[in-house]
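S.,

Sequence below, as promised.
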Amino acid sequence: MTATAEAPRTLAALNPIQQLKAGQLPRRLIQLFVGLALYGASMGLMIESNLGLDPWDVLHSGITRHLSLSFGTIVIAMSFIVLLAWIPLRQWPGLGTISNAIVIGLVTDLTLSLVHTPDALWLRIVFIAAGIVVNGLAGALYIGAQFGPGPRDGLMTGLVRRTGLSVRLVRTTLEVTVLAVGWLLGGVVGFGTVAYALAIGPLVHVLLPLFTVRLQTLDR
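The prediction came back faster than expected:
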């Protein structure tokens, strides 16, 4: 799941052990799991809008057309496949990374079991708009908890570190690639795909500083 914008300076580069020892653990754990749950719910709303998905979910929806697995199961499986790419990048997953890989998929499936695509177009537009806004809030919450990036964001930052290329180039290349593959597999591309691409960066840019927990290590 990708919801990152330019990271504020208060986001710390910590290893998994340092993340757990950095203070404010109860608040950060609550924020992490609320964020991940909201992220899964937002994905469910966007899927049920049937108006288009973000690039990685276009890929996930394309895969569901060829495998008899739920959307959430595909999300979880792809998360762990992406984590395999972390090995040559010499990255260690944090608690937030593993939680991201599991919780979002589970909540997405739960949301899909409770919410269904409305017939009215205006309601579908409400679904996609609400999904994008909640997705931005959710991303700010779980990233701001500072327990490590999600599998897909970590792939991006790892490639940036190892190749020396810009964040913009690496992220754009990754997302265009998964979007193209997803579309070829029959994934859902539409108005929502463009709306997400235009809105998610500004949303996270505004919200992330508000929810980034200041850690003890940053006060020393």
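The chain has a mean pLDDT of 90.

Coffee later?
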